[in-house]
Every structure is written in C-alpha cells, then in structure tokens.
Specification:
Helix content is 49%, strand content 18%. It is of the alpha/beta class. It has one domain: Collagenase (Catalytic Domain) (3-Layer(aba) Sandwich). A 4-stranded mixed sheet has the order 1-2-4-3, with helices on both faces. Helix 1 packs across helix 4. The chain is globular, with a radius of gyration of 14 Å. 33% of the residues are buried.
Length: 138
C-alpha cells in the first residue's frame, strides 16, 4: 500500500502519523494494498475544489474523490486551517478531529456514505471502531 501525502507539515503532524490513520482505515475496509493520496491545502484551494466539484462556493475542511476502481482508492484534500476552526467549534482537540477527518475520508473512498440515516449509522460505527483500535498512532 502506498499512501502519498503532500504538504503534511501544514497539518501540524508528521507524514507518518497521517499515513498510519489512512492505513489503519484501509486495513479495516479489507483494502490494505490499495493506494491513497492525501493532500493538505489552504482555504482558497479547498474552496475552489468545493465550488468546482460540489457546486458549493465556500471552504470546507475535507473533500474525498474516490477513484474509478483498481488498486487506487482515490484522493483526499484536507484544509488544516478550516479543520482547526471546526475542531474548536465542536469542542474537540484538533489532533482528534484531524484523525476523524482522515478516517472519515478513507471510508468515503472505500464506498461508505451518509446520505441516509442507515448509512450515517454504519459509517459512524466504523469510524468509532477504527478510532478506538488499540493504541492510536501518535
């Protein structure tokens, strides 16, 4: 499995920390050999992507783009500045919220969604399972 991380330093955590969460999630999905791209971007870039791909002209904390198949799961774009604000709004530590964003996004790449209550519950259950596995990566 290859997890390609771009600009990990802007997340405030090391590249290996980011990779560990992505790998843990891919393993839980039964896809330990698949590739994932994770790119940390600024608020302007994520707003542009959100506008172009989701027709929402506002910044967001994370976007997931599943691949069309094969061993490439897809790409994730995370805006650390927006994630920090959202973590504070939720009363969460930034580190915990960023881990949740990585897990949540890889689940999206693996086919999970939250359009219905049933889907939301299944996704939340899987997130909790992964976030609570053994010792969390530091």
């Amino acid at each position: 499995m290859a997890v390609r991380v771009t600009a990990a330093g802007s997340s405030g955590f090391g590249e290996q920390w980011v990779k560990n969460w992505a790998k843990k999630t891919a393993f839980a999905l039964g896809r330990p050999k698949d590739d994932i791209g994770i790119v940390f971007v600024g608020a302007t870039k994520i707003r542009t992507l959100n506008r172009e791909y989701r027709a929402k002209d506002r910044p967001t904390d994370v976007l997931s783009f599943p691949a069309d198949g094969g061993a490439d799961m897809g790409d994730i774009f995370i805006a650390p500045a927006i994630a920090r604000v959202k973590a504070a709004e939720r009363g969460s530590r930034y580190k915990d919220y960023l881990a949740l964003l990585i897990v949540h996004s890889v689940l999206h790449l693996g086919g999970y969604d939250h359009h219905t209550d049933k889907e939301s519950k299944a996704m939340a259950k899987m997130e909790k399972k992964i976030l609570n596995l053994n010792a969390q990566p530091e």
